[in-house]
């Protein structure tokens, strides 16, 4: 349950869950793709999972996420900032509301945080006591202020997002919704929606051919690449499929399956190589340290 971002040809990821989804990590890791070497950096001030990661110039932002092992998840509002020059952490303006299982991207130096799960009540500290949101908010690192933006059409969590030509593409994910038997379950969505910051508007595009949550995505040469995920209903399964979306055609094309089917994964694109990191091989658990590369031709 990790996310990643890139700086100077290196991939950075924060926190996550260990095997069994009970132990929460404060890891701050750097992957140097040129040398194929991992480095353990100064840890997060507090252990988190589903914490969004965004790099803006010399700073890395760890935004929100959950504290606690399953089912004792509690959404957090803290925004931790790492200074690459001093190699120290500080805190910035917290999220307007605690949020987990969201995504964050950087466009023109601002951080766009979208979707995820909010607390039903201020003291909510259980997975079931959160609800899905369509909220989009924008953080200006210069002023350290948050501002609201138009909600995306589909509320969701555990989705993926990437930037292509100044627009944010949000794909897949899931919703925790009530079933016919009265019980709640995670139901995957296939929606692809793009946000244009200049127009401050959303566009609904061709849906992902296979609804999937717990996915990851990266943009390379103007196309959106999506990998893996998991499904809970109608039956639990981990997804191996990969897809590429061409905005010029509004069309998806199937790619080769992932060598190791995983969910809760992170991805980072360096040149024409997409690194797909970590995740789990069983629904809800099965943490692995796998790092596989997809080569874009």
How would you characterize the overall build of this protein?
- The model has no long low-confidence stretch (mean pLDDT 96).
- The strands form 11 sheets. Strands 1-2-3-4 form a 4-stranded antiparallel β-sheet, with no helix packed on it. The protein has a 4-stranded antiparallel β-sheet with strand order 5-6-9-10, with no helix packed on it.
- It is 0% helix and 48% strand.
- With 297 residues, the protein is mainly β.
Strand content: over 45%
Task: Give helix % range.
Answer: under 10%
Tell me the strand order in the biggest sheet.
1-2-3-4
Helix tally equals 0
Largest sheet: 4 strands, antiparallel
Over all CA atoms, what is the radius of gyration? Answer: 17 Å
SS class: mainly beta
Mean pLDDT comes to: 96
Q: What is the number of beta strands?
A: 33
Ranges where pLDDT stays below 50 over 5 or more residues in a row are: none
Overall 3D geometry? globular
Q: State the separation between the terminal residues, measured CA to CA.
A: 28 Å
């Amino acid at each position: 349950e990790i996310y990643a971002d890139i700086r100077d040809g290196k991939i950075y990821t924060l926190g996550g869950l260990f095997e069994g989804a009970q132990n929460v990590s404060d890891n701050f890791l750097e992957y140097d793709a040129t040398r194929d070497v991992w480095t353990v950096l100064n840890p997060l001030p507090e252990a988190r999972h589903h914490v969004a990661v965004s790099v803006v110039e010399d700073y890395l932002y760890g935004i929100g996420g959950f504290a606690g092992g399953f089912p004792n998840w509690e959404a957090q509002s803290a925004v931790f900032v790492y200074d690459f020059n001093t190699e120290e952490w500080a805190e910035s303006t917290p999220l307007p509301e605690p949020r987990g299982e969201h995504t964050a991207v950087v466009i023109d130096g601002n951080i766009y945080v979208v979707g995820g799960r909010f607390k039903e009540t201020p003291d909510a500290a259980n997975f079931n006591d959160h609800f899905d949101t369509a909220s989009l908010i924008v953080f200006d690192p210069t002023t350290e202020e948050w501002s609201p933006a138009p909600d995306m059409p589909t509320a969701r969590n555990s989705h993926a997002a990437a930037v292509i030509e100044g627009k944010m593409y949000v794909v897949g994910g899931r919703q925790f919704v009530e079933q016919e038997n009265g019980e709640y379950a995670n139901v995957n969505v296939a929606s692809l929606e793009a946000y244009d910051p200049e127009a401050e508007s959303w566009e609904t595009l061709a849906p992902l051919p296979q609804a999937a949550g717990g996915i990851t995505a990266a943009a390379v040469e103007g196309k959106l690449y999506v990998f893996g995920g998991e499904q809970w209903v109608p039956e639990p399964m981990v997804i191996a499929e990969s897809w590429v979306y061409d905005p010029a055609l509004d069309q998806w094309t199937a790619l080769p399956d992932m060598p190791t089917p995983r969910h809760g994964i992170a991805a980072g694109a360096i040149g024409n190589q997409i690194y797909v990191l970590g995740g789990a091989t069983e629904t809800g658990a099965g943490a692995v340290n796998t790092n596989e590369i997809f080569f874009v031709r």
